[in-house]
Amino acid sequence: MTATPHTPNDIGRLLVRGQDRPRIVSAVSTLLSDLGANIISLDQYSTDPESGRFFQRTEFHLPDLGTRIDELRLALGDNLGPLDLEWELVDATRRKRVAIFVSKIDHCLLDLLWRHRRGDFNIDISMVISNHPDLGEDVRQFNIPYIHVPVAKDDKASAERRHLELLKGNVDFIVLARYMQILSSDFLDQVGVPVINIHHSFLPAFIGAGPYQKAKERGVKLIGATAHYVTEDLDEGPIIEQDVVRVTHANTAAELMQRGADVERLVLAKAVAWHSEDRILRDGNTTVIFRK
């Protein structure tokens, strides 16, 4: 078994966004340098150099970060506040805790569990929650709790209350690995953490049941998958990653489904990795992603 790697000690990440203007990069670099930090990587992007939105991700090493993080937060507020910037400071050595939701379709779930076990993700999977009991034995082989919460058609609110009891204070983000239930706006408001979904098409194409049969009937030459953040607007949240694979008229709907499953696994894995490494900055209904 491959051991899960850990982030070296005293590594921090600083995420900055706001109206673009002179001195932002200088202010961040000077502040970190004055505190004795060594910048490891710095990525930035501006939508327009004159009046655009500015985004920056900085990874740095600061000795004794754990005991100095409050000092750093105060300094950031004093220095970046006058520039009217939003910022987030992350202790990169703290692994993000994740809950995975799934129904009966297992390929995305099992791929995430396998990648986690072999060390592809620097996360802790706290639990898997499902509205069906079917995948419990598969998940328990990875030594991860599997919690069955049935969802009644006429009382989804009860299931969501149970979900909130399980999740509150225990996870940093949620992954829907082909969870075939719509989350209510109340649940999204109360859970208080980002939710990532994988959708089996290029949104908004082929929404709903039987997407691959619909794709076959339409005679598509490309099928794809989309990972996105979940919002109150169904399947319209900010897109994180998309990919496609070519198909032909000779492929059956079952073959399209098989090829689509491969794309779904890869796209979702990238989204989970990027989010766990603080590489995604949301901007309204779009995302800025600083890839490796």
Order of helices and strands: EHEEHEEHEHEHEHEHEEHEE
Q: Give the neighbour order of strands across the main sheet.
A: 7-6-5-8-9-10-11
Helical stretch tally:
8
User: Describe the biggest sheet?
Assistant: 7 strands, mixed
Overall mean pLDDT score? 92
Distance between the termini: 25 Å
Strand tally is 13
**Estimated radius of gyration:** 21 Å
Share in helix: 25-40%
Proportion of β residues? 25-35%
Shape category: globular
Low-confidence stretches: none
Secondary-structure-based class equals alpha/beta
Write a concise synopsis of the structure shown.
With 292 residues, the protein is of the alpha/beta class. The protein contains eight helices and 13 strands. The chain has helices at 24-34, 65-80, 107-118, 136-140, 156-167, 185-191, 211-218, 253-276; strands spanning 11-19, 38-46, 53-61, 85-91, 96-102, 123-130, 146-148, 173-176, 195-199, 222-229, 239-246, 280-283, 286-289.
List the helices and strands and how they pair.
Elements: E1 11-19, H1 24-34, E2 38-46, E3 53-61, H2 65-80, E4 85-91, E5 96-102, H3 107-118, E6 123-130, H4 136-140, E7 146-148, H5 156-167, E8 173-176, H6 185-191, E9 195-199, H7 211-218, E10 222-229, E11 239-246, H8 253-276, E12 280-283, E13 286-289
Parallel strand pairs: 5-6, 5-8, 6-7, 8-9
Antiparallel strand pairs: 1-3, 1-4, 2-3, 9-10, 10-11, 12-13
